[in-house]
Amino acid sequence: MVVLTFIQSFNPSIITMKQPVIFQIGWNACIKCGACVAVCPQEAGFISDFDTIAVGKPCDIACMVCEDICPVSTITHELVEAGMNGRGTPYFTFNGNGKKLVEV
Amino acid sequence: MVVQQYDVVVIGSGPAGATTARIAAENGLKVLLCDKRQELGAPIQCSGAVSRHGLESAGVEPSDEYILEPIYGFGIYDSNGDSTTIDYRQIKPDEYGEGENRKPLGYVVDRRRFDRYLMTMAERAGVEVWLKTEGIGYQPIEDGTCEIQLRRFNEKLTVKAKVLVGADGLQSQVGKWAGLRTHIKLTELASCLQFIVDKVETAGLLEIVTGHEWAPGGYAWVFPKGNGYAEIGLGVIRTMTKLNAQEQLDHFIKQSFFKERFSNCRILEVQGGGVPLAAPLKTQYADNLILVGDSARHVNPITGGGIHTALSSGVIAGNFLGELLKTHKIPNRKNLKTYQDLWLEDMGNKMWQLYEVKKEIFNTSDIAVRDKMLYNTMSEYFSPNSEYKKI
Ligand SMILES: Cc1cc2nc3c(=O)[nH]c(=O)nc-3n(C[C@H](O)[C@H](O)[C@H](O)COP(=O)(O)OP(=O)(O)OC[C@H]3O[C@@H](n4cnc5c(N)ncnc54)[C@H](O)[C@@H]3O)c2cc1C
Ligand code: SF4
Ligand code: SF4
Q1: Contact between chains at A71 and B185 (C-beta distance less than 8 A)
Q2: Chain B residues inside the 8 Å CB shell of A34
Q3: Is the pTM of this model over 0.90?
Q4: Is the pLDDT at A15 greater than 70, yes or no?
Q5: Is the ipTM of this complex over 0.85?
Q6: Nearest to B14 by CA among B51, B53, B45, B57
Q7: Half-sphere exposure in the Cβ direction for B16 (13 Å, CA)
Q8: Which of A37, B172, B305, B309 would be B298's cystine partner, CB 3.0–4.6 Å?
Q9: Domains of chain B, with CATH numbers?
Q10: For the domain bounded by A2-103, which CATH number is listed?
Q11: Residue B141: Cβ within 10 Å count
């Protein structure tokens, strides 16, 4: 795949094209508090059976505020493979924890 | 299959839902109250401080069944540990205190027992209660009612109601079913962690510690928890600190002016959650649907207190639904707006004012000035002369 790298500071308000992510919850630390769901702009039903955001299904909004709000920082993510997202726009992949963006 | 029909179906049996259901049933309505949990209130996501006035105004008797400890006042601290004590046992000794004819100002309740107590009150008022029952969707239908999909002990079923009440708390999905934007901005949701601890002394006061150093964007607290236990907790706004709530709490316990006091503390329970320090939801209704409590952000934006407001909102919603359905009005969006208008008049407008106060404090960029503003506001807020005492 051709890789055009382009790096800039992460700023959620200007970067709108995001690569979908899949979340994992470290259940051992999770206190089942629902704060991650409360900040999440996803549509209804993007939740797990334990009052957390959904696991094992991709989120294409990828605003990452669920990770930020977690009182025990027990949410992590993996990028879904690069390509076109549902809206027909290319994804970006970011390295580190959402700090830098790299277009793939 | 016969579809069961109700006047009102309430999703979520916290203080808001159980109270709405009880008052609606007292108004003669046929009510179903559902909660997905097996034990209400658990895992605990609340410190449980509520005023006696808040309980009594919703017709809830203070009871040993759920009270952990009576409260008589407040201690407000600035970031250096200087403090203002507002002890109603000293301010109004004839009214407040222990013993004959004197009463507490409020209580710290055990949310597991408290939520069960409120549900039982609803049940005794004639409400049908289903636990282990999750709401999964709703659609308004042509005859002016709505269909609600539930999952009860794994079984999917549909019930009909004239009005669906979303009382499903902070992580509300019910509002989203109707396209309401219920999620809270990261800058306005305090990320909270709290420990129930042994070996920390308290004196019947809710202690509130302000200051960016300890709880950026929020505050820290020490509450009595009964049986000699205490609770140490805090809430932070994550855009204002690199540390998460857990790290910030560790910093507070180990480094603050209370470090000696906390030095022998032993953790007995770990709890937490999100507290909206936000304005009420702008639209709290849709066709055949209203939202009550945390789901509509009926939370005091200065203190983060939401039990009293959930109870009061439940009373407003229950009585409103009684009136509406007695007069055979169609429960469409237009007619349900009256609920929100009544709510705003009774307490919502005050909450909007408090939100403005809160915004002014936290929009102040100079940390020393902001700390002082928060300390002064908290000290005034809990004083006997506060104009916001009743929220
Ligand atoms: C850490 C922390 C400390 C707090 N401390 C205080 C305090 O000291 N004093 C105070 O006044 N307030 C406090 N609050 C706020 C207070 O807890 C809330 O405002 C209050 O619980 C709101 O009540 P509610 O009935 O709206 O929602 P909740 O109490 O959250 O109840 C919602 C109910 O809905 C159920 N539910 C959710 N989704 C579904 C579904 N799909 N189907 C069926 N059931 C569902 C849940 O199981 C739950 O029982 C605190 C909050 C936090 C996070
Ligand atoms: S990234 Fe944003 S939209 Fe996706 S689950 Fe997290 S909070 Fe929700
Ligand atoms: S915010 Fe964190 S601790 Fe709370 S439910 Fe979500 S993953 Fe669990």
Answers
A1: no
A2: 45, 169-171, 273-274
A3: yes
A4: no
A5: yes
A6: B45
A7: 27
A8: B309
A9: 4-47+111-184+279-375 (3.50.50.60), 67-104+186-276 (3.30.9.10)
A10: 3.30.70
A11: 12
